[in-house]
Amino acid sequence: MGEKTVIDYTKYRIKPEKEVREVLTGTSSIYILWCKKCFSAFEQEAEKECPEEVLKIVRDMNIEVIGCTGIDFLCNNYLTEKILKKFTGNSPVAVISCGIGIQFVGNFFSGRCRTIALADSIPSSGNATSITGYHGIALGEEKCAACGQCELEKTGGICPVVGCAKSLLNGPCGGANKDGRCEVNKELPCAWIEIYKRLDSQKRHIGKTLDIRDHNVFPVGEKGRYIKENQGRRSEGFYGGVYPLERKELTEAVPLKDFNMPEVVYIFLSQHTGIPAKAVVEPGDRVRKGQKIGEAEGFVSATVHSPVSGKVITIEDKIHPVSQIPQPAIIIENDGAETLDSSVEPLIDWQELPKEKLLNILKEKGIVGLGGAMFPSSIKLCPPKVVDTLIVNGCECEPYLNADNRLMIELPDSILKGIEIVRRILGVSDVVFAIEDNKSEALESVNTAVKEYSGIKVETLKTKYPQGAERMLIKRTTGREVPEGGLPFDVGVVVFNVGTLYAISRAIHKGMPLIERVITVGVETATFPGNYIVKIGTKFADIMKVCFGTEELPDRHNLTMGGPMMGIVQKDINSAVIKGTTGILLLKNPPICLSEENICIRCGRCVDVCPMELLPYYYAYYGEKGQWDEMANYKVKSCIECGCCQYICSSKIDIVSLVKKAKKNANNKT
To answer: What is the pLDDT of residues 461-474, one digit of tens each?
Structure first.
């Protein structure tokens, strides 16, 4: 194969020196904003200093530079606005970016100071009449036709090429109505009237007529509608996120069903956040269903229990489904008798028990978060700060998965009983039960059941990934933002997944430890897809045999634990279900070979979709070099590993794996 080449599709170039001098004439001081460029091979970090070619001209003209700030993707109005709000003063702002960025800055400072364009937008192809030569869909309302010469400093940052339906360059046509609306499209204000209004507010005049080279009319119609729809969905509920194909229709109507009783179970001693449990049984021991077989070690740890009655065969290393490395597992042969341990007893008078007693019971029952994080619930229920709100997470935003959905449809009362227990421990009165709007049956079921309880508000959320992430959910339902490096309790909130609340209810009302959970099994190729109540420790091979009719991994397929966005591809089908297993998917590889991973081209898509408002392309850049500490400088430890950046990456870079390596190897910088 030949050497890879990456075309430079950078969207702007600095104006010729003569034009820069013309637009700066008569200016005594400026603040310079410059975009760090996009669509160019990310082979070295963008310059940290102001572009020297501009500074040289400015110094020669004896113009004072008040400040100079480089911004990643100036066109990203959401993130850029946070930076611009810090600026004070009324000096002109000189902008080096494409027309999208210049227009955004012009709009932001419209009534305060002049915006000067020091760069020209350029088409990404030599054919300026080609629609594909235009900019991609940006987050801002203003667009740019990349016409080749930017005159936005003369028009107050409002572009007549895209703002005027007729793209008139020399002034208004006189066809606007009395409200200043365009005669061609009455929904739009006349761009030229708006230009004169803005210039008047800045006490400026337009001067000579415009002379835009390589002019090309911005296409109206379908692309405009797509842009508007995309902008609306991007900002819906929370910043960023994506809309993958849901594929939930495959199992959403399939009722819960007990999975076949396994003959042998593999119980990993590490199936929770924190230190692995310590085995308290030995090979040859007889165990009962619900018996403790692993003791929590340390503060952040959780006990594990036997899901069956039988005999401990051995304790040996098996490939762990999360770490994908060998870790200790207790292997138990099921005797089929289902003999219960004496510790499995319901608590009739739980409401009379002190909070500490309830917490200890949940700790002993091995309850951890079932949304995937597997954090011990007894610790989460002891926040170091006062909380006033409990948020119930019923979003289940991963494609294919319906385990939580079916729990809400079929067992809402058990979930609500779990809520009452948690509310009692936390001492909160406000409960928000959040469910995405693609789960109409669950919404109906929960709304009906919740009538028997007080103080629980059911909130319907627009479907969007990753809405189920704690920070997104908190912001969407309460408007509160968890601070950088903070946790939900820092804003007075605790979040629990519906599966966890169901497990809490069973632990208190039935005395049953966490020895089974609901998982979704199935994709288009499944023989028996469904939502199964599965024993912890059930081998993946057993599930494949029942649901897919095979005990071997078919060619060109991957077995994934979890959903396709955050799930973990399994390299050993003889691994087993753990407490955090949400689903088992046998995903077929595409019929064509995937594009090879390529160099980052700074397209900015990962920045647009990152719900944590990070800059993931730096993770791709520094991760490929193994410079983990540099990734820490860009807040890699704030990444929630949702996979949105990787899902949309133009260069097919495995960003999430680089993030995981950085978290493991970087220093403690945040």
So the answer is: 999 999 999 999 99
Looking at the structure, tell me whether residues 498 and 619 fall in a common domain.
no
Give buried/exposed letters for 480-510 (b at 16+ CB in 10 A, else e). Answer: eebeeeebbbbbbbbbbbbbbbbbbbbbbbe
**What's residue 143's pLDDT?**
64
Tell me the Ramachandran region of residue 540: left when phi exceeds 0, alpha when psi lies from -120 to 50, beta otherwise. alpha
* C-alpha–C-alpha distance, residues 169 and 149, integer Å: 12
Angstrom distances, CA of residue 496 to CA of 185, 259, 309, 482 = 49, 25, 30, 16
Q: Is 646 helix (H, G, I), strand (E, B) or coil?
A: helix
403-410 and 440-449 helices cross at what angle (nearest 10)? Answer: 40
Q: Is the Cβ–Cβ distance between 124 and 39 less than 8 Å?
A: yes
> Distance between CA atoms of 122 and 10, rounded to whole angstroms?
8
pTM beyond cutoff 0.85: no
Q: Identify whether residues 181 and 51 lie together within a single domain.
A: yes
Question: Span 347-355, mean pLDDT?
Answer: 92
What pLDDT, on a 0 to 100 scale, did the predictor assign at position 126? Answer: 43
Other Cβ atoms closer than 10 A to 345: 12
φ/ψ (deg, to 5) at 261 = -65, 120
Q: Which of 470, 489, 509 is the last residue of a domain?
A: 509
Evaluate the CA torsion angle 4, 6, 7, 8 in order and state its sign.
negative
Element (H, E) at 618: helix 617-625
Q: Which CATH number fits the domain that encloses residue 384?
A: 3.40.50.11540
8 A C-beta contact, residue 176 and residue 190: yes
For the chain, percent of residues with pLDDT exceeding 70? 90
Percent of the chain predicted with pLDDT > 90: 64
pLDDT at 651: 87
5 pLDDT more than 50: no
Q: Out of 113-117, 446-450, 462-466, pick the least confident.
A: 113-117
Place of tokens 């508007």: 228
Range of the domain at 618: 612-665
- Report yes or no: 413 and 619 within 8 Å, Cβ to Cβ: no
Q: Of 37-41, 70-74, 286-290, 539-543, which range is least confident? A: 37-41
What integer pLDDT is reported at residue 141 of this predicted model? 55
pLDDT digits (tens, 9 = 90+) for 294-328: 999 989 999 999 999 999 999 999 999 999 999 99
Please give the full DSSP string across 510-521, using - where no structure is assigned: T---S-EEEEEE
Decide if pLDDT at 577 tops 70.
Answer: yes
How far is residue 551 from each of residues 81, 548, 577, measured CA to CA in Å?
Answer: 54, 8, 16
Looking at residue 562, its amino acid is G
- What the block records as the tokens of 113 is 């100071």
In a domain, 239, yes or no: no
Token pair for 620: 């791709």
DSSP for residue 113: S
- Give the phi and the psi of residue 84 in degrees, each rounded to 5: -65, -25
- Number of independent structural domains in the chain: 3
Of 311, 357, 310, 363, nearest to 337 by C-alpha is 310
Tokens of 244: 């993958």
Q: How far apart are CA 32 and CA 53, in angstroms?
A: 13
Please, are residues 602 and 37 in contact by the beta-carbon 8 Å criterion? yes
125 to 7, 11, 148, 149, 650: CA distances (angstroms): 10, 10, 11, 15, 18
Final residue of a structural domain among 454, 479, 509: 509
* pLDDT one-digit tens code per residue, 585-615: 998 876 655 557 888 888 888 999 999 999 9
Phi and psi (nearest 5°) for 142?
-80, 145
Structure tokens at 162: 């895209």
